[in-house]
Design a protein that fits this description.
With about 100 residues, the chain is α+β, with helices and mostly antiparallel strands. About 40% of the residues lie in helices and about 30% in strands. The protein contains two helices and four strands, in the order E-E-E-E-H-H. Helix 1 packs across helix 2.
Length: about 100
């Protein structure tokens, strides 16, 4: 299995059957102790679909609790996507095409 690390705890696991978008986060046990946990956010047939879902979830994370005009919302989405895309491009540059 191959794992692609994204930002904010998100990552994609690739196996022969699918691309699984997951997130690592800090949760709590029933007794209130902090512990590392993982959640599966979806199974996808290709990398593009997994990345699209990652972008959607990143937008929701950043904008959680905000009250925005439509113009502010669109501007924020563009900035969030640009930052996420920049991170992906930086990672891809580490592995030049053969």
């Amino acid at each position: 299995m191959t794992t692609i690390i994204l930002k904010n705890g998100y990552y994609i696991e690739i196996d022969p059957l699918n691309y699984t978008l997951r997130q690592k986060y800090t949760g709590e046990t029933k007794s209130g102790e902090k512990k590392e946990a993982f959640r599966t956010l979806g199974h996808f047939g290709n990398m593009e679909s997994a990345i699209r879902k990652y972008l959607e979830l990143s937008q929701l994370d950043v904008l959680d609790g905000e009250i925005l005009t439509l113009e502010e919302y669109v501007d924020s989405i563009q900035k969030i996507n640009a930052i996420a895309l920049q991170g992906i491009q930086e990672e891809l540059r580490r592995f030049p095409a053969k």
